[in-house]
Design brief:
The structure holds two protein chains of two kinds. Chain A is built from three helices and no strands. Chain A is mostly helical. Chain B is of the alpha/beta class. Chain B has two domains: about 200 residues, Rossmann fold (3-Layer(aba) Sandwich), CATH 3.40.50.1820; about 55 residues, no CATH class. Chain B has an eight-stranded mixed beta sheet, with helices on both faces. In chain B, helix 3 crosses helix 4. Chain B starts with 10 loop residues before the first strand and ends with a helix. Classes of the chains: A mainly alpha, B alpha/beta. Chains A and B meet through helix 2 of A and helix 5 of B.
């Protein structure tokens, strides 16, 4: 699951593999300069399309985008819901 | 298929219109003109992000013998007006104005080429155009105006999130503010309620072109049409519309973080135009 999320992050933010070797603790928000407000919207849209769920407004919070692990946890939670 | 890198000369000028002037760029066809193409840009920041691709495609069309006109709609780019005063109807009038200019200044059959929300403007115009149109070239058309509006409103939520502001309003509350007649400031753009709700009502399924063939291009990492767009194209096809959906591999240059190019899209679009019967 974490690899799929990583692929979506890489493609939505056009990092072209810049995340490199990463794990759940790899920081996203604050660590990737490309992650501005437009990029976050693109990333949410890409996750919705890739995994087929809808993100509610009140689910858009900074903690979700803190690390690759927190984002993967969010995706897993959405898929289980 | 390689894309030529020739730099066609172009002419920039202003067209007089309601509320001032519209900035236009005309790329003259090289050689005897085969036809003409009118470009309609996407919404807000997507317009800026896609400038380079629009210029690349326009030059390529010109190199292949087509006159190309690009217009900055009211309140956008270098045209008169503030974005907050822009209305869907005003943009529709701008499209008619540009098409009229092109019909008078360029020979041959006319095609409309639109990106994202610009593709929906092209579709609307094709249904009420006074000129006859030879075809539509639709780049990644917005499938649902309501969903598109939600994504635009989300920009406000994510920028609040990034600035560490207290939990802001959801898109529902933002829609309520619009419904109360109050404009919103989003990512540096003032969004008028009239424009927001006109966009919200747009739906690709109900904008099927009439008697005009449509060539539809999707750009994604896999280079395969996504189910949602394939279904929309199939619905048009079932309704008797001549539609051809093609996906090319590339990055979403209209929303990309860094300015990006998709030469495959330029080549595929140019080839599609060449195949359209004159």
């Amino acid at each position: 699951m974490i690899d799929e999320v990583r692929t979506v992050v890489d493609s939505a933010l056009q990092l072209r593999g810049r995340l490199g070797v990463c794990d759940a603790s790899t920081p996203l928000l604050g660590a990737i300069p490309e992650l501005d407000s437009m990029a976050v919207v693109s990333l949410i849209t890409a996750l919705e399309e890739r995994f087929g769920f809808a993100v509610a407004d009140d689910e858009i919070e900074a903690a979700t985008f803190a690390t690759l692990g927190s984002l993967t946890g969010f995706v897993r939670h959405k898929l289980d819901a | 298929m390689s894309v030529s890198r020739s730099r066609a000369p172009f002419e920039a000028f202003f067209l007089s219109a309601g509320g001032g002037e519209r900035f236009c760029v005309f790329y003259p066809a090289s050689g005897a003109p085969l036809g003409s193409v009118l470009y309609l840009h996407p919404f807000a920041e997507e317009m800026n992000k896609s400038r380079r691709m629009a210029a690349l495609q326009a030059r390529e069309f010109a190199a292949r013998g087509y006159n190309v006109l690009q217009i900055d709609l009211f309140g956008c780019g270098d045209s008169s007006g503030d974005f907050g005063d822009a209305r869907w109807d005003v943009w529709n009038d701008d499209v008619a104005l540009a098409a009229d200019w092109l019909a008078r200044h360029a020979e041959g059959p006319m095609h409309l080429w639109g990106l994202r929300l610009g593709a929906l403007l092209a579709l609307e115009h094709s249904r009420q155009a006074s000129q006859s149109l030879a075809g539509l070239l639709l780049w990644q058309p917005v499938a649902s105006g309501a969903q598109f509006l939600t994504q635009f409103l989300r920009l406000r939520l994510t920028s609040e999130m990034l600035s560490g502001a207290a939990a802001g309003k959801g898109t529902g509350a933002l829609r309520a503010q619009l419904a109360a007649g109050r404009p919103l400031e989003i990512a540096g753009y003032e969004l008028a309620p009239e424009l927001a709700f006109a966009i919200e009502r747009l739906d690709l399924a109900s904008l099927a072109p009439q008697n005009v063939p449509a060539r539809w291009f999707e750009v994604n990492a896999e280079g395969k049409p996504t189910p949602v767009l394939r279904r929309a194209a199939q619905a048009w096809s079932a309704a008797g519309v001549e539609v051809d959906l093609q996906a090319v591999r590339g990055e979403p240059f209209w929303s990309s973080v860094e300015s990006s190019e998709c030469p495959e899209l330029v080549a595929a679009t140019s080839d599609a135009l060449a195949l359209t019967p004159a």
